[in-house]
Amino acid sequence: MIEDHNLSMKEGDYRDLDVPSYSMLSSISKQGLDVVGGVKQSFNLKFGSLVDCMCFEPDRVDELFTRGSSEKTPTQNVKVICDAILQVINKPSTVPQTNSTFVRKAPKKVVTLSSYSAQIIAAAKSLKVYTSYNDQRIVNTVVKAGSSYFKDKIESFGKTLIKNEMWEHAAITANTLITHRFTAKFFAKGLKDVQIFYQYKFDTKVNGRRVKGMLDCLVVNHKYKLIIPVDLKTGESPCKEFPILYTIHRYYVQGALYREALKSIVDNDFELHGYTVKEFEFVYISKLNPNRPMRFLVSEDMHQLALNGFTDRHGVKYEGVYELLDLYYYSKENDNIDYTQDQIDCEGLVLMDAETITGNNNLNNTEDEANI
């Protein structure tokens, strides 16, 4: 059944799989082929990740995130001194191997900044700050201004630190999604003949190419044999602009890739015979109004365009899922090559003609007509 294809692995292990995902294909589309062997562009996704976790994995919130207590970042001198101390404290300790049954535990980190007076003084002198202060004044100044910051940093080691204001905003947003009449059904429990999976991980093939993915929400209605893929998006833009975000952020790649992957799973599992994978659905909620979620359903014709590539109404061309998969595997099969074959054949030369820049090929036609 469908649960048999939900990878039983930690998120870190899933991300380590050397298999293309939506984020990789999206990066290829936005940045180019060199991201396959390089570094993908990263964005600050703290808010969306926290909302996701609060909605779909609430039992892991404390494991992955820390709610900050400091109202603001301290002054530069205080921050640099605190960071210098933290760097030493957070260094992984090397515990010698022993055959003894009793293993000494690593000492617990002290979160009180005042306990590090000697280190504060040493750091200040090394950095040549507060040169006119005596030692006690240096300690008092740093402790007063940096205690909250220091405590937040220690307690969030290995986690994502979230400012208190953002935490409150995320909690309101998550509560809206769980209770709002447009979206509450995705969090319903105990429904007869209905299974709902959160953070559904898969590893399958699309168009003969191996892919992976992690879907926020997968609803399976066994009575009507329907499989409904749903993904949550948050952002700064108002809801009415989501169709623009759909192309800019390459969400079309995710929707098409995930739906085709689910179709592949259904096609190759006898127990899922007769099940239909419905159109992909995005739930979007804006930071501007955390009380107003909207749902966006990707139609069948748009799904096909997302697979094969399309040109939008402004003349911008977008590669489809199939082409992006081919580009990824072309690079992997050629030692993570940074260029497509066309770019190599052209010696890295790109022609910037009127159509390329304006998206309007009528300019050349007008010139031709004038010469008749």
Any overview of this molecule?
This protein has 372 residues and is of the alpha/beta class. It is 42% helix and 16% strand. Helix 2 packs across helix 12 (321-332). The protein is built from 15 helices and 10 strands. Strand 4 and strand 5 form a beta hairpin. Strands 3, 4, 5, 6, 7 and 8 form a 6-stranded mixed beta sheet that branches. It has a two-stranded parallel ribbon with strand order 1-2. Residues 100-107 have low confidence and may be disordered. The relative contact order is 0.14.
Strand-residue proportion: 15-25%
The chain-level mean pLDDT equals 87
Q: How many strands in all?
A: 10
Report the total helices.
Answer: 15
Helix/strand class: alpha/beta
**Unreliable sequence segments:** 100-107
Give the overall form: globular
Helix content: 40-55%
What is the N-to-C succession of helices and strands?
HHHHEHHHEHEEEHHEEEHEEHHHH
Tags for this entry?
372 residues, alpha/beta, 15 helices
SSE topology:
Layout: H1 11-16, H2 22-31, H3 46-56, H4 61-64, E1 65-67, H5 76-89, H6 117-127, H7 135-155, E2 160-162, H8 164-179, E3 194-206, E4 209-221, E5 226-235, H9 242-248, H10 251-267, E6 276-277, E7 281-286, E8 294-297, H11 300-308, E9 310-311, E10 317-318, H12 321-332, H13 341-345, H14 354-358, H15 362-370
Parallel strand pairs: 1-2, 5-6, 5-7
Antiparallel strand pairs: 3-4, 4-5, 7-8, 9-10
